Amino acid sequence: MDEQLGAARAQLDPDKPLVIFDVDEVLCPSMQQIMQRWEAAGYHLELSSPWFQRCTVIDAKGRQLSTEEIDTLVYDSYAKLVVQQPTYPEVPQILARLSQRANVMILTNLWADMADSRRANLQAQGMDYPMVFWQGSKAPAVATLSAGYACYFVDDNVGHISDVAESVPAVIGDHFIGFARLRRLAGVAPGARYASNSWQELDARLTQWLDGVCP
């Protein structure tokens, strides 16, 4: 992982601030996309938590899946999804415009064997930005990546936003979840500087932040 961080930092322009984006529920509406696939296959998800494993999943025969079965289903679903996963429609254009003024970095927690597929999928949509594949808390990665840079961090995960706020308080944390139902379930992460509710709002906040750090 340290090699990934070093390689990613080597691609940064030292004269630009840094914006770090998560993928799932930030660039891509992953839970909605997976829910659609499950429903088409006869599964029913009772969405009661931001985490699949804490939700109730019923199969086509009316049987409730165990946590282990949900884990397997989530893994298999992601393996298929990341090969050809659309982002939110406005994302490629916003990131392209943002990259003229800032370093754009992608920091995603994902199974290692899906990394190449995720990278290729985003590149095919015009998003060829430095990308780090991580496991666990993102605070150590953000601390390393942001050293020496004004930094804005966008993530859907309560824990990641809170960890970064505690460990790297200079970083601006925006707890962003594109899926409104999921956002209501998650609430706002402790320590979040912002909690943008749409890509339009996030875009406006990023523009305002950039105007302040590099007028």
Description:
With 215 residues, this protein is of the alpha/beta class. It has 2 domains: 154 residues, 3-Layer(aba) Sandwich (Rossmann fold), CATH 3.40.50.1000; 54 residues, no CATH class. It is 43% helix and 14% strand. It has 9 helices and 7 strands. Strands 5-4-1-6-7 form a 5-stranded parallel β-sheet, sandwiched between helices. The protein has a two-stranded antiparallel sheet with strand order 2-3. It is globular and about 60 Å long. The model has no long low-confidence stretch (mean pLDDT 94).
Supply the key terms.
single chain; about 220 residues; Rossmann fold; 5-stranded parallel β-sheet; two-stranded antiparallel sheet; 7 strands
What number is the mean pLDDT? 94
CATH H level, superfamily name of the largest domain: HAD superfamily/HAD-like
Topology pattern, helix = H, strand = E? HEHEEHHEHEHEHEHH
CATH class of the largest domain: Alpha Beta
Helix segment tally: 9
| Name of the CATH architecture of the largest domain | 3-Layer(aba) Sandwich
Q: Tell me the domain tally.
A: 2
Low-confidence parts: none
Structural class given helices, strands, pairing?
alpha/beta
* Biggest sheet layout: 5 strands, parallel
Head-to-tail CA distance between termini: 34 Å
CATH topology of the largest domain: Rossmann fold
What share of residues are in beta strands? 5-15%
Name the strands of the widest sheet in spatial order. Answer: 5-4-1-6-7
Number of strands: 7
Shape: globular
Helix content: 40-55%
The radius of gyration over CA amounts to 17 Å
